[in-house]
Design a protein that fits this description.
Distance between the termini: 30 Å
Number of strands: 4
Strand content: 15-25%
Mean pLDDT: 83
Low-confidence stretches: none
Helix content: 40-55%
Strand order of the largest sheet: 1-2-3-4
Shape: globular
Oligomer: single chain
Number of domains: 1
Number of helices: 6
């Protein structure tokens, strides 16, 4: 229940990827809300990492912080992830705050 009620937020890929590797399958399935670090998000959008629902099969909400990144780059990344969200059934919340 703890995994399904929390928002898991990360600011660095150096923290996020090891965290993923050290979760049990049941924990990954229980995660419903996620705010991955920007670099990992970009890798997913570019196809360099698996889709979010491949890693987190019950994902319901994904927060993306665009921060101060180049808008053209992020527009492309976000478009891919939003399309995946619509197809896979999770909400994408885009935040335009600072890094």
């Amino acid at each position: 229940m703890v995994y399904s009620l929390n928002i898991f937020a990360f600011v660095a890929i150096e923290d996020f990827e090891p965290w993923i590797e050290n979760r049990l399958p049941a924990q990954m399935q229980a995660i419903t809300t996620l705010q991955p670090d920007p670099l990992y998000t970009a890798y997913v959008g570019d196809g360099m990492r698996p889709k979010f629902t491949t890693t987190f099969p019950n994902l319901k909400r994904l927060y993306i912080n665009q921060g101060g990144r180049r808008r053209v780059f992020w527009d492309e990344v976000v478009a891919v992830i939003v399309k995946d969200g619509e197809k896979e059934g999770f909400e994408v919340v885009i935040e335009y705050g600072e890094d």
